[in-house]
């Protein structure tokens, strides 16, 4: 039996391509377009609408500043191939169950690509998320067990009302005459181009600013405070809606990752402890902006036990430390790959077998093959492999062979096997 290493460098390109495919596919239940080098709005409009002259609609809906300078990788959204009506927003992604509520009508399940309009209320079930695309190009994520009313929806004015739960928004920089605000039960948060989070919990409004700034004022009070990037505050609804007495706190630093090895049997990630942290909230998505979350959780310690039922593929993990006031800190982010519980086997025409696993750049691998499931006797023990695959065989004896793969970062100490399987060779 012979073994041949496959070229390791070919793994990097498929990894990048697969990540791009996952990102575009995750949000693409409605027509969408990932910008490539050389694309123009004229050509994209012709492709999706069959009318190149409708390119201004794409520009306005996606808040494209300079149409001649499209950035490759940008995702442009459409709504079932038709323009959104005045006062309409679009559901970009849904995980779990969510409902659209309109006065005097029964609840309607929320689906990707559906338009929503001013006056609608969106409600999410536990473990559910809705990603909302607004006409000014802003994006809002409505997390689990939350209820949000769309009060005003337009290119120059967006107003959302948080009735319960939370909402996280990424808002483009405002220009003169533009407004984006979120109302809680007692406060109004006006945005100046930012990324921020708002939650209603226990009679309090919690606000955290990641980028830009947010002005906070009471519904009946003229006074206001401004939260800058890296700041947050907890506002007591019993204060008469006056935010002036609230303490502005510096958000905890973004966590750093100390262990990044993920396997289907042990999907855990380790963090460095953040001083002052009472725990860590995390969220997993398949897009780098975390605009289409799949699952979220909380860990009291620095060991994050991620879900074991994630399908093989790339995922983005965002983690924030939580302080004593229950403010979430600055986010730390990690791209990881969840490999298949069993490796892939591909037979060749000449009787050899290609064993495949997902290889990460900068790591080395060890391939072991044995007739025994406990690997007491190894027929093959290939170490320091840069590839994510190997071709073995042809096999002289028929029967079942077992194989497994482990990895190392220092070239010497290999961890527990993270993938493998068996090969059934026909008896000649």
Question: In percent terms, what proportion of residues is strand?
Answer: 35-45%
Q: What distance separates the N and C termini?
A: 15 Å
Structural class: mainly beta
Shape call: globular
Q: Which value, in Å, is the CA radius of gyration?
A: 25 Å
Mean pLDDT figure? 80
The number of helical runs is 3
Show unreliable segments. 2-30
Main β-sheet, in a few words?
A: 17 strands, mixed
Structural description of this entry:
This protein is mostly beta strands. It has three helices and 34 strands. The strands form six sheets. The chain has a 17-stranded mixed sheet that branches. The chain has a four-stranded antiparallel sheet with strand order 1-32-29-28, with no helix packed on it. A hairpin with an 8-residue loop joins strand 21 and strand 22. Helix 2 packs across helix 3. The longest helix is centred in the first third of the chain and has 15 residues. The two termini are 15 Å apart.
List the helices and strands and how they pair.
Blueprint: E1 2-5, H1 12-26, E2 32-34, H2 41-49, H3 55-61, E3 75-77, E4 88-95, E5 98-101, E6 108-109, E7 115-117, E8 121-124, E9 129-133, E10 139-142, E11 147-153, E12 157-170, E13 179-183, E14 187-191, E15 195-201, E16 204-211, E17 213-218, E18 224-228, E19 231-236, E20 248-250, E21 257-259, E22 268-271, E23 279-285, E24 293-299, E25 303-305, E26 313-322, E27 332-338, E28 344-347, E29 353-356, E30 364-370, E31 378-385, E32 389-393, E33 399-408, E34 419-425
Parallel strand pairs: 12-13
Antiparallel strand pairs: 1-32, 2-3, 4-7, 4-9, 5-6, 5-8, 8-11, 9-10, 10-12, 11-12, 12-15, 13-14, 14-17, 15-16, 16-19, 17-18, 19-20, 21-22, 22-25, 23-24, 23-26, 26-27, 28-29, 29-32, 30-31, 30-33, 33-34
Helix pairs in contact: 2-3
